[in-house]
Amino acid sequence: MVKEIERAGIPVAHMCTVVPISVTVGANRIVPTVAIPYPLGDPNLPPGDEKELRHKLVRSALKALCTEVEEQTVF
Amino acid sequence: MRIVHYLNQFYAGVGGEDKADHPPEKRDGFAGPGMAINAALGGTGEIVGTVFCGDGYFNENLEEASEKVLAMIKSYAPDIVVVGPGFNAGRYGMACGMVAKLADENLHIPVVGGLYAENPGLEIYKRHAYFVPVGDSAASMRKAVPDMVAVIKKIIAREEVTEGFFEKGLRKNYFSPVRGSRRAVDMLLKKIAGEKFVTEYPMPVFDRVTPPAAVKDMRTARIALVSSGGPVPKGNPDRIESSSASKFGRYSLADITDFTPENGETAHGGYDPVYANLDLDRVLPVDVVKELVAAGEIGSLHDYWYATVGNGTSVANSKKFAADIALRLKEDNVSCVILTST
Phi-psi bin for B29: left (phi > 0), alpha (psi -120 to 50), beta? Predict the structure, then answer.
């Protein structure tokens, strides 16, 4: 899916937990996340900390989208 | 030639998904598709034993299952191991691949299998077996068996197997009477003359997309959220399937600033949905992105999110969905995407 959207010229930050799969399928801007059932959260954290964690991850994705890359890059 | 055949619980006749936790077991002689394979070999080789295991059990107890399966295969002292065909079954394909690796590395005997081109087990384990291309489901069994038997017969006849299987990706050394520089120039001359030539080093085919240019200024960018993790409005209005999705959905973000158990859930099967159903922001970070838009760090958030379920969904369907989504995002002047996967 990442590739088809990028083929249209729109940069994609792929946020996923199993990075090797993302690399194999060919995502260019990869942002590793927390776990398969909750990539952008962590139910073990208090709600405030969990939101802070999500903020951090989304900011990494924004940074990835604003970074020129020549090849597949894991942020 | 003595052949041992590896099957999952279904093809061994134990049962379906309810028996996926069946531990490794062996039986003398053939079972399931082994009957047709054995018959097609016409006495040149014989399936002396069948080893089988539940797909769930194999993948969740990899070490223990591997050890047991290997010992059972070994007990028949085979010359060849046959696995599957596993078609496009994910866990079965992984098990077939792992069994191929075990036989290849520990018993040093040839392995023949049958997998669909998109089976993830193929990409990971192809170097360990002659994996014959087969269809994506058991409906293609009638073609799969003779194709696999053709390769098995070559091995039995001690002939070199040169076709009818997915490339293993192994390099083989040999001595050539003509030195490299000469061969290279010959190839070049043929190329210049427009003649056919065969490369000695085919480049691997990667379907890669050149990274699109980065976003210049996030404060004016329009970002869209897309996910293969199945985030949908509560009640899954489009009834997106929990696996092998046949569609994607497009949903309005107008009334959502934060996901709650009342307004969102995941349609994705295969992982524990409890955490996503309690707070879908854990899959699609709408709360945080809307805050960053309000703070001026992101120009705007596209009014709709797009979602499908990645579980067992074919590459062809995923491509189709995403090409359609990309077209719509383009029309709506979206400048960048966050795509989340579970």
Answer: left
Q: Do A16 and B218 touch (CB under 8 A)?
A: no
pLDDT tens figures, A16-70:
987 877 887 889 999 999 888 899 999 999 999 999 999 999 999 999 999 999 9
Looking at the predicted complex, does its ipTM rise above 0.90? yes
CB contact under 8 A, B215 and A69: no
Best mutation target, A28, A40, A67, A68, to test chain B (most B CBs within 10 A): A40
Which residue is associated with the tokens 């990494």? Answer: A60
Closest CA to B283 of B265, B301, B302: B265
Cβ-nearest to B281 among A11, A54, A69: A54
**Cα of B12 vs its chain's centroid, Å:** 23
pTM of the model: 0.62
Q: Measured between CB atoms, which of A1, A16, A43 is closest to B322?
A: A1
Q: Do A2 and B336 count as a contact with CB atoms less than 8 A apart?
A: no
Q: What is the DSSP letter of A52?
A: H
Supply φ then ψ for residue B156, to 5 degrees: -60, -40
Contacts made by residues B140-145, CB under 8 angstroms, sequence distance 24+: B140/B87, B141/B33, B141/B36, B141/B85, B144/B33, B144/B85, B144/B87, B144/B114, B145/B33, B145/B36, B145/B37, B145/B40, B145/B85
pLDDT tens-place string over residues B47-80: 999 999 998 889 878 899 999 999 999 999 999 9
Nearest to A58 among B211, B285, B319 (CB): B285
Instruction: Say whether B290 sits in a helix, a strand or coil.
Output: helix
Q: How confident is the model at residue B250 (pLDDT cuts 50, 70, 90)?
A: very high
